[in-house]
Amino acid sequence: MFINISWKGKLAFEAQTESGHRILLDADPEVGGEDKGPRPMELLLVSLAGCTGMDVVSILKKKRVNLEGLAIKIQAERAPQHPKYFTTIDVEYTFRGKEIKEEDVKQAVELSKDKYCSVSAMLQEKATISFRWNIANQ
Amino acid sequence: MFINISWKGKLAFEAQTESGHRILLDADPEVGGEDKGPRPMELLLVSLAGCTGMDVVSILKKKRVNLEGLAIKIQAERAPQHPKYFTTIDVEYTFRGKEIKEEDVKQAVELSKDKYCSVSAMLQEKATISFRWNIANQ
Fold it and tell me: Taking CB atoms and an 8 Å cutoff, what residues of chain A touch B28?
């Protein structure tokens, strides 16, 4: 897998991924950026959310769970000194659907966390990652 | 720092970052996605490139280096089994400008790698990350 990124002045960068998508990144105006795109550390959390989100949706589909919606909120704390990596990451899933069982959700989240999610496998070496969920059956 | 992501059907997700930017993620059609956005693991590499890119641009600016362009290419290999995290990551910078000195570039890259870059601090626990550079003085 590869990506390319090029500098667009000040602290803005434009990335192109191997799959052909473009993403603009930028820093906060407080540190000299112009907020033209997300911060690199935000992208790290987006990457984690997308990874575990795709895992759990795939697993629940295989289990024929009637999933109608999934939202994931991630909150993270950073080290006070450089390098300011994430020390704790809290992943909260909200599943919406019909007759979704606690047991199926628990198994899907655990399979992602322990077996499939490549992103959490990398980030959990530095950060303590917690996973919790809500189920909203209609 | 926080981000939210919501499921958009099949394997697509839309993220919103704390800074207010939206990013669409998707999987490859081979695994059931529709390629509406980049893959989560690509975003991890984009995050790394943006993080170290912003660091080195800032450091070279402080050193009053006449930098006119910077491109970063990242190539990475994944583990063969789940979780397929990155085992090696190769970061290659191409600096373009006038009278850019090898010494300044080396110091900027090393400061990012060893001190400032929060993303590489997290990923280097699982992946061996190598950093190399080219300087194109005009």
Answer: 19
- Domain span at residue B34 reads 1-38
Confidence tier at A1 by pLDDT (50, 70, 90) = very high
Strand stretches in A43-137, DSSP E: 66-78, 86-98, 128-137
Q: What is the mean pLDDT of residues B92-107?
A: 98
Verdict on whether the full-model pTM lies above 0.80: yes
Residue B96 distance to chain A (closest CA, Å): 11
Q: Please tell me whether residues B7 and B63 are part of one structural domain.
A: no
How far apart are alpha carbons B61 and B67 in whole angstroms? 8
Domain identity same for A23 and A73: no
Total domains in chain B come to: 2
Do B18 and B67 lie in a common domain? no
Of A35, A42, A126, the CB nearest to B3: A42
CB nearest to B18's CB, from A42, A44, A121 = A42
B106 to chain A, minimum CA–CA distance in Å? 18
Instruction: Give contacts of A39 with chain B, Cβ < 8 Å.
Output: 17, 19, 50
B119 contacts A44 by C-beta, under 8 angstroms? yes
Q: Quick one: B4 and B66 in the same domain?
A: no
ipTM (interface predicted TM) = 0.97
CATH number at residue A8: 2.20.25
Which one-letter DSSP state was computed for residue B39? -
Q: Which of A43, A111, A78, A128 is nearest to B21 (CA)?
A: A43
